[in-house]
Amino acid sequence: MKKNLVLFLVFTFGLFFGQNKNHSEKFKTLEPDVWLNIWDKENSDKSIKIDTLFYDEIPKYLEFRGTVVEALRWNDALGENILIQTVTGHFNWKDYDENLTDFMLQDKSELFAYLFRKKRSENEFSRVWKLYDYNKCYGVDWFTGFIPKATTITDIDKDGISEITLPYVLICRGGMDPGEMKIIMYEDNVKYALRGTTMLMCKSKEHYGGEFEPSDNLKKESTLYDFLKKRWETHKCENDRFY
Question: NCBIfam families, alphabetically (predicted)?
Fold first, then answer.
């Protein structure tokens, strides 16, 4: 009996200590920002002076969720702008039944983008818009995030108001299905979009996926539409980029 008790205590202590050590290591490596080279400097407007911000340079009163993967600052005709892009990584969420009694633990991940602006007559930044999307997945391969070297700041129509273009993907699969892809553009608080799928096997004659549908208001803006179609062609191929 004593032997069994000793073995139980040793096992319990080892399990507890191992978990705490694992959590301690994770705690030590926590970072508020993970710079993933999201900004596409080459295809952004060279006439706009765009600066990257360190995490500590972001005004403390700005409210946002997630881990920062890119933060940019620039000026246009509307004032001084700060763009913050974040992701949450994977976490558990409770998927309740219709009666809201029983639930299953499922996997979820989220991404956010925020535009804050300070007009010339103002002393502090205020939020102009928030982009939010998520991925609920119980699959083998999945990814939720902004496409590397894809976010652009431009002034395509030369009206002094910058356009912010945010390409990202939501992938969840256990087979060979294309992922979900979106390119969202904001000009001030007007939102345009291309929504479709990633392309797989791009270098093969059997490639598939890669189609998109534009938002209705984008169809009326030919200059912006042409720009976003080129961005889509540039980024639609997965090519093992996301995991």
Answer: LPS_M949_RS01915
DSSP assigned state of 151: B
* 6-22 pLDDT tens trace: 444 444 555 455 557 77
Low-confidence ranges of the chain (pLDDT < 50): 5-11, 15
All structural domains of the chain with their residue ranges = 28-235
Half-sphere CA count of 45, side-chain side, radius 13 A: 20
Q: Each residue of 55-71: b (16+ CB within 10 Å) or e? A: eeebeeeeebebbbbbb
What is the separation, in whole angstroms, between the first and last Cα of the chain? 50
Separation of CA 125 from chain center: 22
Cα–Cα nearest to 171, from 114, 241, 113: 241
